[in-house]
Amino acid sequence: MKNNKPTISDVALNANVSKSTVSNYLNGRFESMSNETKTKIETAIQQLSYTPSLSARRLSAKEKCKAICVIIPYNISHAFDTLYFPTVLSAVGSIAEKMNYNVLIFARNGQGIEKNIEYLKSMASTMVDGFMVFDLKQDDYYFKEFEKANIPYVCVGKICGYDDYNYVASDHRQATVDAVTYLIGLGHKKISLVMENSSGVVEATRLAGYKEAFRKYGLPINPSFFCNIDPHNKNMDQICYEECKKMLTQKDRPTAIICSIVFMRTILRIAEENHWTIPEDLSLVATEYSDQYQFSYMNFTRIQSIASEVTELAFKKLLRTIYNKRGSFESQLNKLTLTIGDTTAAPKHI
What we know:
alpha/beta; 15% strand; elongated
């Protein structure tokens, strides 16, 4: 069926002006436009019942929307299950305000990206100048479609073993190597790694760092020392408790744990139930540590989160790409620091 919806070309023809003049009118650029021209365009719009589309308002490739799209995983309702997305979205909002930019959020909602990629690409021609990708998976390179279409993008996260893309990330692999190396230096050989959803790139890189350190020191890896917890499961607290209790109460239990601060209350609960003292009976290293978690009575050995700093840096690099598409993007891996606190010590029984 033929589409009879009037176009910007129809308006230009009716008003006897160029399409670029109509575009200037639609975008409020009246400086060099006579009142007669404005009246003709306005009359044509009314006669044709023309409704300007976003794409019509971006006829020039040089014109910017002054908006970026943040792509997140899961349903939008899960964005606040942990402190990570509130932290990064706050950072995005803050830097966007400074740069006079608007922010749109796209949640994948568990659907295959193939169904959404064309929509996302259409957004780049009508609504946004580029994308910040936060939903990286170890084997999902859909963001390369932006590259093929010459659409500015930046991924916040480092895919283990893959470098051919635009990214800004925290070096979780090296931080985990540092943590394991430190614990081994204290005499620990039974070290647990409690992970948040191991399909994500952060946990994949942590696991790679964990295995790298064990190989370096010639120590065997015990698969029963791994826990993989989905922080978005509605029964997350109970599942975390059951899985970690099973791991920690086995006969040959770990003497040290590397664990997200998200799950640390559960670990401390299990330790209390078994009358273990920290760090004498169980050493703890907290990852993704943030001062927003209230453990004022404990000075954790920790890897501090720099999510806000990484997000701000990624935003600035994206804007440079938007305004200089011919320039090369320099990906960046940012160091995480292991800070020694009071929750780690040599094990009682080696």
